[in-house]
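Forwarding the complex inputs:
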Amino acid sequence: MNQVDASSFHEIGRSVRRKEDFRLLTGKGHFADDYNMPGQAWTVMVRSPHAHARIVRIDAAKARAMPGVLAVFSGADCAADGLRPFNHNAVPSTKYDMKLTGPGGGSVFVGRHMLLPADKARYFGEAVAMVVAESREQAEDAADAVAVDYEPLRFLERTEDAVVPGAPAVWDEAPNNVLVDAFFGDHAATERAFAAADHVIGHEFHVGRIMPLPLEPRAGLAHYDAASGNYTLYFSTGGPGIVRQRRQFAAALAIDQEKLRLVALDTGGNFGTKNRPYVEHALALWAARKLGRPIKYRATRHESMLTEYQGRDLATKVELAMRKDGRFLAMRAENVMNVGAHCVSLSPLAKGAGLITGSYDIPAATLRARGIFTNTVPNNVMRSSGRPEVTFAIERLIDMAAAEFGFDRIALRRQNLIRPEQFPYTNAVGSTYDSATFEANMDLGMKIADWGGYEKRRQEAAARGRLRGLGFANYIESSTGSPRERAEITVTPTGRVEVVLGTQPSGQSHETSFAQVAADLLCVPIDNVEIILGDTEVVKEGGGSHSGRSMRHAATVLSLAAPELIEQGKALAADILGVAPADVDFAAGRFVSTRANRTFDFLELAKEAQARGGVLKVVKDNEMHTPVFPNGCAVCEVEVDPATGRVHLTRYAAVDDVGRCINPMTVDGQTHGSIAHGVGEALFEQICLDPASGRPLTESFEEYGMPSSTTLPPLTTEIVEVLSPTNPLGIKSGSEGATAGAPAAIISGLVDALKDFGIRDIAMPATPLAVWQAIENAKAGSQANNKARHGSWKWRA
Amino acid sequence: MARVSIKVNGKDEACEIKPRTLLVEFLRDHLGLTGTHVGCDTTQCGCCIVLIDGKAVNSCTMLAVQANGADVTTIEGLADGGKLHPMQAAFREHHALQCGFCTPGFIMSALELVAKKKNPTEADIRYGLLGNMCRCTGYENIIKAVKAGAEAMARVG
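Prediction (whole assembly, two chains):
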């Protein structure tokens, strides 16, 4: 794709302070729970107290008779009204996605996400009925009074249990609970390489189930206007954006999408969990029509933690074949994703599948990718979905190979990295990386981390009785996402440049960074640019914000729209000046002609357009499938207190190649948060179920390890800009990459700190107890420390 | 019903409310001050923190009637028209907010922290903000912003 001339940019690349901030800093944001309407009623869900149970009978008589109760609805009522399951588009289907199939190459059965199930509850906390009452308190009390007879069934938490013959079926349609079983790569070449290898190293990892946990619990206000038949939902959302969610909600409610308006202005964090629609929002819309009242829903934190879509949970068995000089020859991987009770997204499995060989030139590889149903909360994309999992596997395996076969872990990486001249590079499972300078990333990362000064710090820590360790990881990730985006640019006579786009930010500063792009492309002051998002009244097309797509897609479609708007301007200026359009130039922000003295900028021209009954406006659509591959590395230093097992992160440095960086301040900021997610995964965060009942034991911030201001270290980050040849501005993506590298770098540092005990692996999260136990086991000569949290993960075909 | 009289952002607010009304519900639902947010049910996230007689308090964990007669400051009470409070301005300058949901609580906590100690160290700030959670920023820029905000407040006295 042709690149845009960057020589005249003065906003792009600058740390412009954010347009969003004034309202957010003064309490004037519009979050999901900030909407209220006169006459609104409240809905509260009745949730399953079993992880897997047949719903025998629902008796709501007592609840219906309680004060203020307006209605109780169940799955049978939904079915009677013709409500349909959500279509989550769970199987990635854009041109460059890895093609996942069902067993035997067939189609993938994803389960049915009914708004309220009538047959079974398939995970603890699944909504089985809804109560509507005048107040939230009345609805809560009545929900407690709905009597549901359940026939509890054996439940499944782990994939290895789900595929055992005789295991209970989450869905009758999915034998052995397998929904995906797909093979990639060149089997024969890989086997040949393994047979010829001097060294083979293998390991099994489990990257555990965690929660995205935005601070804003989900909420919404649904309204139905009987006169027009129009529905409105005020809420907050993310990922697919309101255009796709509008289609999804309308389909579930069996209504025309033109009758549904979605408004989602400020979203209090997402990280993937808001990337798929939630039943409560659809049910509130449905109830608003049935009852003729605005219906409000607000999840408690407890409810959020029970039922918000979760992330990760990939078991992987990997092997690497090497020559005795250290050259990587081939890789084999078997990846198993625990998709939960029904499948809302296979993106993590597919994304990871394309990146198993990481940043390295590995000539041959095979992968078997499987997706398995269990009785757990549906597993969805979570920040950098799929990439932290496979990055963890390859990077940890390289550390292990270095230790096992006597290589320097840095030199081993350098030797096998894909070199800049090899791009575009197609890896052994078919992903074509666009551009990168991996070794330069490593050099920069080690420099900003003061790698050379580490030994002195280690000795100083040792003198204090602390074990210091130094960790390293490279990463590469893929940014794909919904291929379509639309920009609608209007220059108003009042001097505003209004830009409507279909992305859906949840803190990523689109109002600022997109304005930087529009300002530079149209040569208008950034203060005059207003980015408009989040309301289907004005946003008619667009792909939302997921998979690192927003900046790349927005800037690309803007760079296609801007020339058209400039052509319009030239035609108008020519008309005013009485010259031919070909005699008008757009230079330095002004429409000029050598044949006339008057000149105009866009804002002046918009006034002229109005005076002539016209308007300067362009609507441009773009479809772009080609993925880009952000990449980078992380260096982490840890200190372990061997007496308590407490891991203290002392230094952390990250290098991220994001392609062209529009706003370094916001990219760095997102990198910080991205690192924090990786720190949480590596050290603190874990969803635990009571093995007897399947009840989650992590239902509040008291039980779940959120990173805090005292558990995160100061973060040093550097942005690298290797422009991607795939789009006009050379953009890759920020925000997600640092999450991909963090867990591997942190565990690498931790294992380095503990290497004198003979410890070569620690399962995540490396809590003080886990670390202390590993040390004690090592002292006692036990190998138990090498086992994953749930025991060694065993592959069962 | 119970009658409460609370000074909120300098304005006397007198209302008849249900006795079970939490202070945060009073602020959000009765006064429409939706800048104070609710992020959890266990007094841990800090999104709902307001200043009560200068003390940072989780408004989700006290009844409105307990604040009867008190002087409450919320995030809406800090800016002077279009001019941000120095702490708010520091959050903007140092990009200490992304989604902005936790931000009001952080700013109120930061104000209490600075009131207790004019020039807090990084460690003071990190420990002083333990009652606030942020999922977007990794805390990095929040720490910088609070330090800068404290310095700016010291300059303006």
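The first strand of chain A starts at residue 41 and ends at 47.
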